[in-house]
Amino acid sequence: MCCPEISRVLKDDNVTVYKNQNENLIVFTGENYEVFTSIIDGQYPNYMAVVPKTIVGEVQVDSSFKSSLERILILPADNKLKVPAVKVEVGEGMILSALSEQCGEIRETLPLIYKGEELKTAFNAHYVIDALKMMPEATMSFGGALAPALFKTSDDDNYTIVVVPLRA
Prior knowledge:
Proliferating Cell Nuclear Antigen; four-stranded antiparallel sheet; 17% helix
């Protein structure tokens, strides 16, 4: 995912972007730096295949949701190779939780208003946080317990982030 990496580096407003035709590169130039990234040539994957066709519930998420996820990531992983899974339960509000066999469980209840079917699912916490960095306030839509979640802003209906759940 190049956009979060580039946004961390490109802090100032005076950024020049140009495409190098000969080497198939995009170059971001600032006052004290240049960032080069390759343009991948080929067939882009059919992302619409993972976008849920039906939505079973929605919740408005904001910085409190992101803060909860960041606190949950403080829980040490039992295995450094293990994906940092956060379990999400929605119904009467939202409950976020994670489990470490060595340290116990962390659980947070958020007073968010959820509309839809009750469900339990799990996500890679880093992927959800990356989505929220791109859109601090969003509608999180669920396609089901094992279906991807969609993040959309009210500002731009054409911009959607899809996060695929984990089997936890």
